[in-house]
Amino acid sequence: MADKGGAHGKDPEEKVPLAQAFFDNIFLLLVLGIVVPTVFYTIWGLFEIASIPLAK
Amino acid sequence: MEAVYRTCAQTGLKVHNHAERLIRANAVAGVVSILFGGIAAVLVLLTRWPAVHLLDPASFYRALTFHGINMLIFWIIFFEIAVLYFAGPIVLGSRLAWPRIGWVSFVLMVAGTLLINIAILQGKADVMFTSYAPMQAASYFYLGWILFAVGALVAVCNFFASLVVAKAERTYTGSIPLVTFGAATAGIIAVVTLAHGAIIYIPTWLWSLGIIEKIDPGIYRLIWWGLGHSSQQINVTAMVSIWYLLATLTVGATPINEKVCRSAFLLYILFINLASAHHLLVDPQLSPAWKIWNTSYGMYLAVLASMIHGMTVPASVEVAQRKKGLTKGLFEWLAKAPWGNPGFAALALSLSLFGFIGGITGVTFGAEQINIISHNTLRITGHFHATVVAGTTIAFMGLTYYVVPLIFRRHLISTKLATAQIYLFGIGMTIFIGGMTTAGSYAIPRRHWDVQFATSLFQPPVEAAAFAFLGIMGVGGLFALAGGALYVLITVGSVLFGRRVPDTPGAVPLAAMPQDKGQHVPIKGTTVLVLVFLASFIIYYFLNWKWLAAIWIVK
Amino acid sequence: MSLQTLQGVWWKKVDASEKMWIGIALVWCLILFAMMPLWHLKGGQNPSFETYRTTPEQFLKKVEAFVAAGPKAGEEKGLPVIAPDPKTEVYMLGRLWQWYPTLKLKKGETYRLHLSSMDLVHGFSLFPLNLNFMVLPGYEYVLTITPTTTGEVFVVCNEFCGIGHHQMVGKITVE
Fold it and tell me: Is residue A30 one of the residues assigned to a domain?
C-alpha cells in the first residue's frame, strides 16, 4: 500500500511548494510543537508565579 | 538484529516482526489496563449513585485513584504506542528503528504501571490521579510515574527514529500518509506531555524521599497539568487519526483535501497543549491574560482544527459513498453506510459524541469565567468522559476490531456481537454523561464520597433533581460497564479462541476504494450536519453565560 | 486514502464548500475568544488576580485577628460566626477538614474575602450556588464578592484533601 501512491498529484516532477516541504519536515514541526507551549504555557506561567508579591 | 518481514495478505503492507510483536504487547497491556480501570469503575459508579452508595470513604478514594490512572494513562498510552508502531514502521513498510529499545521501553512502562498500581492497592497512594502536592504518597508511587513516562518517551522517540529510517532506506517516496502524519502529531504532543511529567515527578519523588524540602503547590499544578491535560490531547490527536483510518477501512474514504487536514493537525501541534490552562482558571497564581490566552489555545485555533476535522472526516465518507452511487438527497450516503460494521459504528459514535458533547462542553467550561460555575464539579468529569471515553475509547475499540484480524490474525468470535458492543457502550456512556454533567450543574462536587453530606459538619440541602440525574448517571453507567466488559471479552476471546485468518487476500473484509473519475462530488449532507453542530454549540455556550450571570458578583 | 503516501504536489486549492465552513468556524472561534476579555469589562463574574505569597502561620494570625475583632454573631457547631462590616477585609481559611470561621454577610454589600489553606490544596465551592475557586497553601487569594441572594450557602470543599474530605463543609449566611 505504501509504495503504490499516486492518487494525488499527477506529475511527480512538479516543483514542491515551500508550504508542502514545511509539512514534510516532521522534526521542524516537533521543535515548534515543543517551543510554543513551553514558552506560552510553562515559562510565562512560571514567571507569573515568581512575580507574586509577598503578603503584608 | 536482522529485520524479518511478512507481507500482509489483506493490505499488502510489509510487516516488521518486532514492530508487530510490540504492537501486540502494547495492545495487550492496554486491554489489561482497561480491565483494571473497569473493575474500579464498577465500584466508583455504585458509590456515586446515592441510592446504592456502596463503598466506605477510604475504599472509594482508593478505587477512584486506581480508576483514573488506569484509564487516563495506562489504557490510553499503551494503546497509543501500539498505534504509533503501526502508523510508523508498518504503514511505511519499514523496520522499527530500535527493536531492543522498543522492548526496554515496554518493560519500563509495565514496571511503572505495576509500581503505581501496587502503591494504590496497598493504600500508600490515596492521592487521586493528580497527586497534588503537598499531599504525599509513598515514594515508589512517584518512581512508577517516572519509569512510565520515561518508557513512553523512549517509545515515542523510537517512532520518530523509524520515520528517519524509513526515509533514509527509501521504503517510501513522496509525503507520509495522513494517518502517519496524524500519529506524528500525537507523538509531538506526547513529547511535550511526557517531558512535563518527568519535570514534575522527578522533584516530587525526591521530595517524597526527603531530599527536597518543599514542592510549591502552585508550580506543581502548573507543571502537572502540562502532563495531565496534554496526555488527553495525545488521545484527541490519536483519535482523529483513527477516524481517518477507520473511514478508509470501512467505506474506502480518501481525505478530501490533504492541505486542509494537515493544516488542522499543525494547529494541534502549535496550540493544543496550551489548554492545560483549563484546570487553572480559578487558581490564585496566574493572571487573566495568561488564563485567557492559554485556555483559548491561542485564540481557539486548536478548536478551529477540531471543527475542521469534524467536517473533513464525514465529508470524506460522504464523497466515498456518493462515488459508489449513493447520491439520492442529502443523506442517502449516511443512511446506507455500513452501520453493521463495528468499525463504522465506532467511527460514527466517536465522532458525534466527541463533537456534540465532549467538544462543546469542553470549550464552554474552558471559558475563563464559565469555569467558575464548572470547576471541580461533576460537569468536568461528565465532559471528559465524553472526550476520553465516548470519543477516544470508542475509536480505539473500533480499531481493535481491525487489530485482532490484521495483527493477531484471528477472526472475531462474532462481528455482530462486536457491533452490538459498540452501540451498547456508546448509548450507555451518553446516558451516563448526560446524568453526570447535569448533576454537576447543581454544584455536585467531583471526587467526593458523599454528596448527601450525611457526615459533614453542616448538611447543605441538595436539590431532588440533582439526585435524579445521579440516578440516570448510575443506570447509563451500568450499560456502559456491560459494553466495556463485552469489549474485553470479545477481544480476549478472539485473540485466544478466534479462527485463524488464512493468508489469502480478502479473508478480512476491507472496503474497496471507489473509482476516482475526477468528478466534483458535493458534500451537502456534511454541510447540514456541521451547521446543526454549530447551532448546538452557540446555544449551549450562551446559555452558560446566562447561568453565570445569575450567581453572586465576584472579581 | 489515508494510508497511502502522497506523490507530487498535494498543496492544492481548497473547495468553496470547505472554505465556507473554515471561514464560519474561524469567526466563531474569534467570538469565543472575544467573550472573555469582554466579560472582564462588562460582566460581574471574573476570577481575581489579587494574590499574595504567604505562609500558613502568617495567614492563621490574620484570621485569628479577624475573628477576635468581630463583630461576633454567636457560635455554630463550635465555630464562631463573624458578621463583618461591609467593605472590610474578610478572612476564611481551609484546613483538614474545616472552613474557619463561618460568616454572616449582607445582601448587596461588597466584601474582600481573603482565602488560604493551612495544609493541603482545597476547593472553595459555594453550594448550591455553584461558585468555585481553588485555595492553595502559601497563596493568599483575595476575591471581591457581592452576595446577590439571601439565605444560607455552604462552603463545600471540592478538591480531594484526604480521608475526611467529604466532611469539610463550612457556612455563609446572607441577610
Answer: yes
| ipTM of the complex as predicted | 0.97
pLDDT tens digits, B328-367: 999 999 999 999 999 999 999 999 999 999 999 999 999 9
Going by C-alpha positions, the residue among B23, B368, B358, B321 that lies closest to residue B183 is: B23
Q: Which residues are CB-neighbours of C130 under 8 A, at least 6 positions away? A: B373, B377, B441, B442, B443, B551
In the predicted model, what is the mean pLDDT of residues B174-199?
96
Q: Which domains does chain B have, with CATH numbers?
A: 10-251 (1.20.210.10)
In a domain, A12, yes or no: no
**Shortest CA distance from A12: residue in chain C:** C8
3 state DSSP class of C135: strand
Number of continuous H segments (helices) and E segments (strands) in chain C? 2, 12
Q: For chains A and C, what is the number of CB pairs under 8 angstroms?
A: 58
The low-confidence residues of chain C, meaning pLDDT below 70, are: none
Q: Which three cell numbers stand for residue C120?
A: 493541603
Residues 1-20 in C contacting A (C-alpha not used; CB under 8 Å): 1, 3-11
Contact A2 B177 (CB under 8 A): yes
For testing contact with chain B, the best of C3, C97, C174 (most B CBs within 10 A): C3
Indicate yes or no: CB of B554 within 8 angstroms of CB of C121: no
Beta bridge partners of B422: none
SS (H, E, C) B473-531: HHHHHHHHHHHHHHHHHHHHHHHHHCCECCCCCCCCCCCCCCCCCCCCCCCHHHHHHHH
Q: Which residue of A has its CA nearest to C141?
A: A55
φ and ψ at residue B211, rounded to 5 degrees: -80, -40
The alpha carbon of residue C12 is apart from the nearest alpha carbon of chain A, in Å, by 9
Q: Tell me, yes or no, if C54 comes closer than 8 A to chain A by beta carbon.
A: yes
Q: What would the DSSP string read from start to end of B170-182?
A: TS--SBPPHHHHH
Q: Which chains touch A (3 or more CB pairs under 8 A)?
A: B, C
Question: Which residue in chain C has the smallest CA separation from B537?
Answer: C28
Domain limits for position A31? 25-50
Task: Count the neighbouring beta carbons within 10 Å of the beta carbon of residue B540.
Answer: 15
Q: Is residue A43 assigned to a domain?
A: yes
Test B260 with C130 for CB contact under 8 angstroms: no
